[in-house]
Amino acid sequence: MMRFAKIFFREVFNTALLIIGVTALLYLLFNLMPGFFPGKGEGVFGYTGLLRRLFTFQFGTSSLSGRDINSIVFPAFRNTLVLTVGSIFLSILIAVPIGIFSAYRGFKTYSWPLVIFSYIMSSIPVFYFGYLVLYIVSRYTGYLPIYYPQATGRGSPILSFVLPIIVLGFGNESISEIVRLIANELERVMHSDYAIASRARGESLLRASVNEGIMIPLVTIVFSKIPFIIGGAVIVEHVFNWPGMGRLAFQATLDRDLPLLIVIAFLSVLCVRGGMLLKELALSFINPQEK
Amino acid sequence: MLIAVVLIVLPAALSAQTRGGTLIYGEYGAPIRLVPVLANDSISVRLIELIYGSLLYYNANGEAVGDLAESWEISKDMKTISFSLKKNVVWHPVPGDSERRPFTADDVVKTFEIMMHPSTITSLQSRYNFISSVQKIDSSTVVFTLKKPILNVLGRFSFKIMPAFLLNNISYLRGDEDLILYKHPVGTGPYMFVSQEGSSAEVVLEANDQYHLGSPLIERIIMRPFADQNIITQTLLYGGIDLEVRVPPRDISEIQGDAQFELAPYSTLSYSFFGYNLRNPVLAIRDVRKAISHAINRQEMLNSFFEGKGQLISGPFAPGSWAYNLDVKPIPYSPEEANRLLDRAGFIERTKDGIRVRGSYKLQFQMVVPISKENETTKRVILAFQNYLKSVGIQIDIVWLEWKAWTEAVFVQHKFDIIYADWLFDDSFDISSLFHSREIGPGRNNFGAYKNPEVDALLDESRSTLDIEKKRTIYKKLHEILADDVPYTYLWTLTNYAAYNRKFRRVEIHPTRFFTYIRDWYMLEEEQR
Nearest-CA distance from A141 to chain B in Å? Predict the structure, then answer.
């Protein structure tokens, strides 16, 4: 328990430092740029005011539209979360069996088409794949599966909800990495002494090697991929008209909506560092020996 | 004869306008601000047209039609205009307030005062500084006093009126105040604001049951923003939206092939041009500017990038308007003529990459372009421009700038050689802010520092006359000079197309304000989903 607490506090401390660094840099840059945000040009006081607003989650109003930032950012954050978490689960669901299978079989008759498939899926640009899926699905079902807010839904809500997740799940480039790493690691672990020993005792080989061979590479990859998946989500959000953070950030940049941009940067840092924290905790749970 | 009329009218009356239904329309981008004085993006302007009312508006035939004004009277010396306002108009309900307040003269006065306050951030002030004061006579009469008479004065009174009771302690708007009006627009128009979704900025409107011209027939209107232009037309074709405000040119043929949808053209009322910075000594040579105009094939660009949906122009006036001089023809495409002019200007020698030089001057220009939303066609136009000029020995370097940096570079610092941009046609055809030498300077519209005493004199003369015939002769002369002098290479004015589902009946679109006739649109009961 002590160990978890230690990791937790270390990560929180790091996150706080990072947030202070990022916001200070943004505050400085935005002070040099034309455009307005509350606290601009007030030096240290302006900056502490900004920090206070961020840490109390009272984000104020957008300089461009005059709308409440909390009511803009939180729905968008929720939408992106659904998209990224869903797509990660899908990637894992596809990649892990392929990885295990090819570790067992080696790169042979049955496993190579699957491995090649995973490489191809990962190398298709996600915007192209998105349009392709849109085209095919709308031709065959008669619905255009883009995002419709619940109140005004037309077409097929389930399709509109699931397809973007599928596209990002295939297109976020993590499938091939998971496959490759699991295949390599699992194969190495399966040939290690302790695995052979446990096999000799008549225990399941997979069970003995699951922690070191699957869980550790999986956790490492998935959590380190979080920033990239958020980046890939921008494109999927565009193609499927999904109102998430990426689209919001893009629009806010074009419009120079500085108060909104600071909030988005803040939430992104929280998100990425939160992922890191989860990764550390998960790793120390899987492998208690790890320092 | 009478029977025939009855026969024609009767079926129309029988299938009478049924109330109800939802219209979902798609926009590329999100509205920025639903506040009349502050908004200047077309998406917000279209929504404001639905929510707010104005004293009067101009219909498609150019006639003034009263909206909030019952009638108006212009004095003999054309220096005062008095409006008597309708008495049965009420504001939309304010959240948390059951009573609906009446519209009065105070609202007009307050809106005008806020609009003209020097601290208000708005692009409208220059249109209205000919008005010296506004006065409330009684609760349903206002009088505007003008500094000097101007032509087409009624056209200026189409600004939207805001509710004074929500602007009590406010004398100007900068956009950062904490106002109910910013979050929940309250107007007198045919539709009332219901909600705006947070993350997607989707706006829901509901028919105003107490609209003073009779409640509109379509019950709900939803504005759906899109982040990606490529899927809007597809969404229309698959029924996700009912109306696309602006169809990208290359999607037009796809919609044309579908009997379920109708295309409605409307003029953009703006024109595109290449503008030159005459502070550059090389571009100050008229032959060089003329050579550039000769070197580009505008008809081909119009045909291939805009599917020919537009018209070439030869000067800064709307084609078909009384100010446009049909005797002036657009400069024809002729690379030979361009080469001849460049030779005559002394740019005979060439560098080894084929760029013409004269002494230390080189025909190499910097073109600054804003990274706008429509940058796909913009990019094509600019690349074509670059190629056309390369073939006559002129090099164009393209610099992409973010919008605010672009306006800074062009209008304030004048750090550019050529721009590709659009101007709106002014409704009173006043072009003095573009070409008068008085308008040279930081933040002024004559960004290219064009200076011609003859043009100055003509512009001053046209401003002081109210006689339309005299004005016409002056403008024809101006058109001729400005075409020959080439401060801009005038390109084209485009036709926009809206596309809508045929289940909506009696759809009519106003060229600038779009939803002006929304009250009459309807759909049959069996087609309301």
Answer: 10
Give the amino acid at B334.
S
What is the DSSP code (8-state) at residue B159? P
Q: What is the DSSP string of A227-288?
A: HHHHHHHHHHHHHTT---HHHHHHHHHHHT-HHHHHHHHHHHHHHHHHHHHHHHHHHHHH-T
Residues of A in contact with B238 (CB under 8 A): 138, 142-144, 155
The string of pLDDT tens digits covering residues A59-69 is 888 877 778 88
Give the contacts of B98 (CB within 8 A, at least 6 positions apart).
none
| ipTM value for the complex | 0.80
Q: Are B409 and B416 in contact (CB under 8 A)?
A: yes
Alpha carbon dihedral A69, A71, A75, A77, in 10-degree steps, equals 30
Q: What is residue B8's predicted lDDT score, i.e. its pLDDT?
A: 46
Taking the CA atoms of residue A201, residue A203, residue A206 and residue A212 in that order, the dihedral angle to the nearest 10 degrees is -60
The Cα angle at residue B182 between residues B178 and A35, in degrees rounded to 5:
70
8 A C-beta contact, residue A243 and residue A49: no
Q: What residues in chain A have their Cβ under 8 A from chain B's Cβ atoms?
A: 34-36, 61, 63-68, 71-76, 79, 131, 134, 138, 142-144, 146-149, 151-152, 154-155, 237-239, 241, 243-244, 247-248, 250-251, 254-256
Note the Cα B47 to chain centre separation in Å: 14
Could you state, in chain order, the average pLDDT of each consecutive group of 10 residues for chain B (529 residues)?
47 61 89 84 89 87 84 88 92 87 93 89 78 91 88 82 90 82 91 87 91 90 87 87 89 88 86 93 92 94 88 87 86 92 90 88 90 72 93 91 81 91 75 85 85 91 79 90 92 91 89 85 81
The answer to whether B91 and B188 are in contact (CB under 8 A) is yes
Alpha helices, DSSP H, located in B220-361: 232-237, 252-256, 286-295, 298-306, 335-344
Q: What sign does the CA torsion over B474, B480, B484, B487 have?
A: positive
The closest of B359, B370, B369, B350 to B282, measured between CA atoms, is B359
**Residues A253-258, mean pLDDT to the nearest whole number:** 79
C-alpha to C-alpha distance for B184 and B164, rounded to whole angstroms: 15
Do B357 and B347 form a contact (C-beta atoms < 8 A)? yes
Q: Identify whether the C-beta of residue B489 lies closer than 8 Å to the C-beta of residue B292.
A: yes
- In terms of residues, how long is chain A? 291
Q: Is A253 left (phi over 0), alpha (psi -120 to 50) or beta?
A: alpha
What is the least distance, in Å, from the CA of A165 to any CA of chain B?
Answer: 18
CA-wise closest residue to A120 among A175, A83, A167: A175
| Contact call for A67 and B183, based on CB within 8 A | yes
Chain B residues closer than 8 Å to A241 by CB: 200, 226-228, 231, 235
pLDDT average, residue stretch A75-99: 88
Contact at 8 Å (CB) between B293 and B502?
no
